[in-house]
UniProtKB/TrEMBL annotation:
Residues 1-24, 146-179, 227-310 are annotated as: Disordered. It holds the Pfam family NAP. Gene3D superfamilies: 1.20.5.1500, Nucleosome assembly protein. This is Protein SET isoform X1. One of its GO terms (biological process) is nucleosome assembly. InterPro entries: NAP-like_sf, NAP_family. It comes from Pogonomyrmex barbatus. Belongs to the nucleosome assembly protein (NAP) family. Residues 159-168 have a biased composition (Basic and acidic residues).
């Protein structure tokens, strides 16, 4: 029978390449088992929460559906609503060719339809008016779990009108110069017909989780930027720069005027000095005259004193 100080369990240390074992005594082993029991209970609650959240999501999907339909009916009153929303979304705009943007002007309705159990997949339905590009009224791209249990996708076969196949036009175009990283999809319809990696389809997830719940935010994107002061901030920055430049110019002018002012001050000082020199000269002359007068007076006085004895 093993003592309490002997090994209760040995686990291979993943940090060691020689298969060294980590030893646990009985007390630690019991503690680890308790932690594992708590963790199993937490995992069970998480699974139960996920199931209940799915049921709640199913319920509210049904409640939201008539409002989505009502919103689509209202949106039809606004020309080019959906193409505007797409163009205002940076990720979608990156893959939109000019011809594709024109084709999407005929898009009158967008709809995301989740499967009943939610977990198994969803469809994105694009409804079009009659247009010069294809015959289809509805184009659908679907994401679901394949027979192997892995994510898979499929889409409607587009019946292009003669000479209007936009996927062929996109393939003949060279990639844009200066692009830092190549795009996974070269164009919008290239994305629609591609089924290479449905598990990481960023465009589909963006439409499903962002565009579809609230397309108005993208239709109003430029107006929202203005309201948030994005453009105003730019104008303020420009005006501040202009003011700084003007202040710099004014400072330069003031500096120039100051130098001229200094010269004029010097000139004035020179004039004052000249006037002072003239005054001093006049004073010197006066002093000289006064000295001469004093000498004359002194001479006359001496003469008078010299004549008195006679």
């Amino acid at each position: 029978m093993a003592s309490a100080n002997k090994k209760a369990k040995e686990l291979e240390d993943p940090g060691s390449g020689e298969g060294d074992a980590r030893d646990y005594d009985v007390e630690i082993q019991k503690t680890l088992e308790e932690i594992d029991g708590c963790q199993n209970q937490i995992d069970g609650l998480n699974e139960k929460a996920s199931d209940e959240i799915l049921e709640v999501e199913k319920k509210y999907n049904k409640l939201r559906k008539p409002y989505f339909q009502k919103r689509n009916d209202i949106i039809k009153r606004i020309p080019n609503f959906w193409v505007t929303a797409f163009v205002n979304n940076k990720e979608i705009a990156e893959i939109l060719e000019e011809d594709e943007e024109d084709a999407l002007r005929f898009l009158n309705k967008l709809e995301v339809e989740e499967f009943e159990d939610i977990k198994s997949g969803y469809r994105i339905n694009f409804y079009f008016d009659e247009n010069p590009y294809f015959e289809n009224d509805v184009l659908t791209k679907e994401f679901h779990l394949g027979s192997s249990g892995d994510p898979a996708s499929q889409s409607t076969s587009i019946r292009w009108k003669e000479g209007a196949d936009l996927t062929k036009k996109a393939k003949t175009k060279a990639p844009l110069k200066g692009r830092k990283r190549p795009l996974k999809h070269r164009s919008f319809f290239d994305w629609f017909t591609d089924h290479g990696d449905p598990s990481s389809d960023e465009i589909a997830e963006l439409i499903k989780d962002d565009m579809w719940p609230n397309p108005l935010q993208y239709y109003l994107a430029p107006d929202i930027d203005v309201e948030n002061g994005i453009e105003g901030d730019g104008e303020e920055c420009e005006s501040e720069e202009d003011e700084d430049e003007e202040d710099g110019a004014d400072d330069g002018d003031e500096g120039g005027e100051g130098e001229e002012g200094d010269d004029s001050i010097v000139v004035v000082e020179d004039d004052v000095d000249e006037d002072d020199d003239e005054d001093e000269a006049v004073n010197d002359e006066d002093d000289g005259v006064n000295e001469e007068d004093d000498l004359l007076v002194d001479d006359e006085g001496d003469r008078e004193e010299g004549e008195e004895p006679e």
